[in-house]
Structures are given as C-alpha cells and as structure tokens.
Fold Ribonuclease P protein component.
Amino acid sequence: MKNFPSLKSNTDFQRVYKNGKSYANKNLVMYVLENDLAYNRIGISVSKKNGNSVVRHTFARKLREIFRLNKIEKKGLDIIVVVRVGADVDDYHKLERAYLHLLKSHRLGKEDAEEIK
C-alpha cells in the first residue's frame, strides 16, 4: 500500500483551522491553507457524534478515495474535511457531490483550473 499524503499531527490541524479559509455546505466543512510542499495533503475529521467507529471510518475511507480520484490541479495545499454531525451522506455519490461543491467554492475545481490557465 502506498503512503497517502495526509495531515497527521495536531499542530498541522490547528494551523489549518486557525489560518485556513473555510467553506461549508449541509454535510461537510472544508478548510484550505497553502503549504510549502510540492503536493497536497488531506486531513479528515469525523466526530464521535457521527456514529460508531465503523461508520466514522467508512466516512474517512470514502473521503480519501474521493480526494484520490478528484485530483486538484493546484499543488501545495493542506485540506481538512470535517463531516458534520447528522450528515446525510450514506451514498458515496452524495458525499462526492458535497466534496466537489466545496472545491468549487474554494475555486479549486477542474473548471476553475482551466480558467486559471
């Protein structure tokens, strides 16, 4: 298994929460902050109020896969995705639409990358 580029330390999370730009929708909150690396890193936060560990881990796995499949053209970003309590994202495609909506809000979607070029 390849090493996945993720935020792991509490200081990384706190730095993005404090200094990052955030947008939210009904199901997710996304914080984005530039880093000095040549690649993007993602951090996923799912509260214990969202269910048992199986449910929380399922959210995290789905979000990691969505991040992997929907590459962001701009490099050097730290991204934190927070799953809101009571999020209605049992379906993978609903979760993906919510994620892509937030990317568009941050102007990081594929259409926005084509506009920048």
